[in-house]
Design a protein that fits this description.
Elements (H helix, E strand, L loop, with lengths): L1 H25 L10 H14 L3 E2 L13 H8 L11 E3 L9 H10 L28 H10 L5 E12 L4 E13 L21 E11 L7 E7 L7 E6 L4 E4 L29 E13 L20 E15 L8 E6 L6 E7 L5 E13 L5 E12 L4 E12 L11 H5 L3
Parallel strand pairs: 2-10
Antiparallel strand pairs: 1-2, 3-4, 3-15, 4-5, 5-6, 6-7, 7-8, 9-10, 10-11, 11-12, 12-13, 13-14, 14-15
């Protein structure tokens, strides 16, 4: 009888733990649509009036509540950006189709994910997916942004212009780029990371870039590596074909502007370095029109214009995070990140100068591309970043060649900088 009682007690304990575990899992919902139920019905009713309509200076005030102040400011003052008029188009909201790997990884790891006292995700590198689908803090939202690996790898060609809107002078640029995530992988083998033998340096993410324009940058190559160790700063090497030399950039140069654009190195993809350099404060939700299913062929502009026309904007209910760098002398006094509730990528961000003035706005225009295993992955295919103080803009399109592919690891060595150049 005693033996049976023990077995019964142990059995009940195991069942209780399983139920408790399933209870925790039940608290995790993913994917998380931007709208559903009654909220979706209201959006669809609003779309009956606005979907398919062209937004211009004549009717922009009727949708002002759904435009960020930066977009509204640009479109109501088009001459600042070298245009007589600016316009965009409203399109219906469409939920993202996320990969099976991302969904499974999120549901598996999210119930037990934690952040330590230093602000670091516990198990970073071994817990792929969106880490906190129902976030409670700005820091958790920042880790969600970090958790999207954009299909684990991709190759693209970026073409664009840096525009001085006052003089209408343009400088064209073209880059071939390969990007690879080494940890937190959820679709492309190996999952969730490359082995220590394959990745002895502990790389988290890397990109290799070869310039084809402008003329003075032809065959310049770049290699940037972000490490898993949060206390190890990124490495950035540049090979200049003109001098046939490899130069390593110092960390304090990350706030330098990139090749005359309005972007600094930290701005790439929204934020390209370790999260622990900042503090994060959740501000609230923002129901705004952004480009999530952009046909890049519909983007237009005239020479000297530093802001895209033809942006296809759909309503999205963003998570908004105020971001401040821990360095009191950092170039931005603060940033606002507008994070997509479905993919947790950054649809746009705004940057303020040290006097607290609106300085820049960076918009990323997404669409869904074929990726590993016949799935689709949302990746941005075009962008513009504008400087309100200088009347300056940088507009570009990205021809995404492949997503979720195998990229030779040797491409992310400094030796490749010369091998892939002239």
């Amino acid at each position: 009888m005693k033996r049976r009682s023990v077995r019964t007690t142990v059995g009940c304990f195991v069942i209780s733990m399983l139920l408790l575990g399933s209870g925790f899992a039940a608290d995790i919902t993913f994917p998380t649509p931007s709208y559903e139920g009654e909220k979706l019905k209201k959006v669809r009713e609003w779309e009956k009036t606005w979907a398919g309509k062209k937004i211009t200076i004549e009717n922009i005030d009727q949708v002002k509540d759904f435009l960020h102040e930066g977009v509204y400011k640009a479109m109501t003052n088009p001459t600042i950006f070298g245009a007589e008029a600016l316009w965009c188009e409203v399109v219906p909201y469409k939920q993202y189709s996320l990969s099976k790997g991302m969904i499974e990884a999120t549901l598996k790891h999210a119930p037990t994910n934690k952040i330590d006292a230093e602000g670091m995700l516990v198990g970073y590198g071994d817990v792929p997916g969106i880490h906190f689908p129902q976030p409670a803090t700005g820091l958790e939202m920042a880790w969600n942004f970090d958790g999207n690996t954009r299909g684990d790898s991709h190759h693209e060609i970026q073409r664009g212009s840096v525009v001085d809107c006052r003089t209408r002078f343009e400088r064209e640029a073209e880059q071939y780029r390969w990007e690879l995530y080494w940890i937190n992988r959820y679709d492309v083998p190996p999952i969730p990371r490359f082995t220590k033998k394959q990745n002895p340096r502990g790389i988290a993410r890397s990109f290799f870039q070869r310039h084809a324009a402008p003329a003075d940058f032809v065959d310049t190559t770049m290699l940037e590596i972000k490490y898993q160790d949060i206390h190890r700063e990124e490495d950035l090497w540049v090979y200049t074909a003109m001098f046939r030399r490899i130069r390593r950039y110092a960390n304090n140069q990350r706030t330098d502007q990139i090749d005359g654009t309005d972007m600094i190195y930290d701005d790439q993809d929204g934020w390209y370095t370790h999260l622990i350099h900042n503090t994060y404060k959740y501000i609230g939700r923002a129901d705004l029109l952004v480009a999530r299913h952009q046909d890049s062929s519909k983007l237009q502009r005239i020479t000297g214009q530093g802001f895209w026309d033809g942006v296809q904007r759909e309503r999205v209910n963003h998570w908004v995070v105020e971001v401040k760098n821990k360095d009191p002398n950092y170039v931005y006094s603060k940033q606002l990140w507008y994070l997509d509730p479905e993919s947790w990528q950054m649809n746009f961000k705004v940057m303020y100068d040290r006097q607290g003035r609106l300085w820049k706005m960076y918009e990323l225009f997404y669409t869904e591309f074929p990726s590993y295993g016949g799935q689709t992955t949302p990746i941005f295919n075009s962008e513009h970043i504008v400087d309100f103080l200088r009347s300056h803009g940088s507009c570009s399109k990205r021809e995404v060649k492949a997503v979720g592919i195998e990229i030779p690891l040797k491409q992310f060595r400094t030796q490749a900088l010369k091998e892939k150049s002239y």
